């Protein structure tokens, strides 16, 4: 059985729990009225209980073509909050409207030149479900805005957050800055998790920004104002944690033994923007790529980006399921190669002699070591990351759209 916040009465009037009525009025409607689902036209019951938020419920044996799910009290309250909030800013806001073309029922639908579908998600979904919903919305020219329940915001460290696999498919972008949105339906606080950078498949560097829902505008939700961030200290602490536990990881031990290393090289373990499409730690694939491919590739002559991308593809294929579902491995590999070569150039280990051609610098890639060198690399990585987002955002503005992978 699943719940609705609105239903049709016997006169085909839409009765919504977002409407203001007294308790006695609701009780009268419950006793005197008969209600139907506005989507499937089947009978629904008005529930005015004390344990859950009031709602209309389908019968257990009945199915609605919108494929509704069981909804928690937090979900129902969150939908109400988002509807009232959006309706104050856009009169063409609809609650639980049914999109017949795709058989979808977004929590809140906002009609505009670029229509929006606000989806409040508290429960865990499969990545497949979220991806398919996004695809159906895109086919109709609708932009989905996924807002996750406050219960899903999992802070591990000051700037480290646990991100469930399906939540990655709810990333929003403002001038190519990736961010996630969370709403605590009880405190009515919104958290924008800004500048999300994947470290592991389920771990990311991010900076939280909290604001009361009533103070947030629809424009700010879609395009948050600029925010300065700094991840050098957080990434340094994480790198030390990984190094201290390296011999507890079977794959790390195998890699170190293969290349006769006693520690993870300084040139490995750098989160890149495209890392979010991988299921392999940057410590693993970058260590393997540097020692098994990159150093040998640059021994004799300059190499092009295309040549390096081919080598990186071979490297990634050594790992089991290196890519996340529903991305283009060839595009991901090309972006990774471009980003990693650009970072090594910033580190001073490669030189660009043409727009997509590199040679080794005088400093040996394998000889990098020491705390001072690592601190220097951290500063270089952070400056490069911010510059990458800025330049990518400017390119997106000129093109009028975001490139997808």
UniProtKB/TrEMBL annotation:
Pfam families referenced in this protein's UniProt entry, alphabetically: CoiA_N (PF25164), CoiA_nuc (PF06054)
Residue intervals of the Competence protein CoiA nuclease-like domain: 71-224
Record-linked InterPro entries: CoiA-like_N, CoiA_nuc, Competence-induced_CoiA
UniProt domain Competence protein CoiA-like N-terminal: residue ranges: 20-66
Superkingdom as given in the UniProt entry: Bacteria
Protein name in the entry: Competence protein CoiA
Species of origin: Shouchella clausii (Alkalihalobacillus clausii)
């Amino acid at each position: 059985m699943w719940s609705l916040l609105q239903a049709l009465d016997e006169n085909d009037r839409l009765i919504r729990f977002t409407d203001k009525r007294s308790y006695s009025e609701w009780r009268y409607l419950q006793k005197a009225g008969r209600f139907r689902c506005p989507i499937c036209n089947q009978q629904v019951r008005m529930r005015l209980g004390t344990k859950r938020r009031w709602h209309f419920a389908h019968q257990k044996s009945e199915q609605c073509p919108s494929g509704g799910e069981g909804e928690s009290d937090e979900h129902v309250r969150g939908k109400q909050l988002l509807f009232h909030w959006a309706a104050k800013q856009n009169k063409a806001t609809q609650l639980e409207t049914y999109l017949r073309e795709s058989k979808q029922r977004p929590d809140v639908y906002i009609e505009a030149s670029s229509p929006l579908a606000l989806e409040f998600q508290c429960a865990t979904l499969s990545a497949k479900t979220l991806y398919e919903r996004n695809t159906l919305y895109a086919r109709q020219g609708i932009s989905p805005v996924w807002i996750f329940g406050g219960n899903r915001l999992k802070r591990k460290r000051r700037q480290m957050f646990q991100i469930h696999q399906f939540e990655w498919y709810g990333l929003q972008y403002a001038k190519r800055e990736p961010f996630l949105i969370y709403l605590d339906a009880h405190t009515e606080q919104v958290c924008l998790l800004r500048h999300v950078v994947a470290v592991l498949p389920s771990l990311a560097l991010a900076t939280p920004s909290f604001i009361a829902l009533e103070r947030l505008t629809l424009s700010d939700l879609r395009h948050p104002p600029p925010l300065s961030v700094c991840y050098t200290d957080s990434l340094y602490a994480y790198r030390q944690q990984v190094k201290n536990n390296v011999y507890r990881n079977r794959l790390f031990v195998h890699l170190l033994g293969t290349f006769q290393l006693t520690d993870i090289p300084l040139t490995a373990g750098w989160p890149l923007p495209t890392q979010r499409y991988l299921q392999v730690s940057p410590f693993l694939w970058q260590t393997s790529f540097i020692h098994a491919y990159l150093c040998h590739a640059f021994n004799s002559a300059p190499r092009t980006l295309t040549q390096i991308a081919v080598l990186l593809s071979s490297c990634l294929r050594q790992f089991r399921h290196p890519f996340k579902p529903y991305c283009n491995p060839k595009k991901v590999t090309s972006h990774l190669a471009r980003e990693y070569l650009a970072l090594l150039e910033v580190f001073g280990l490669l030189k660009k002699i043409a727009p997509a051609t590199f040679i080794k610098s005088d400093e040996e890639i394998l000889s990098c070591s020491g705390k001072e060198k690592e601190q220097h690399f951290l500063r270089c990585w952070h400056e490069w990351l911010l510059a990458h987002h800025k330049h990518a955002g400017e390119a997106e503005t000129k093109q009028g759209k975001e490139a997808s992978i």
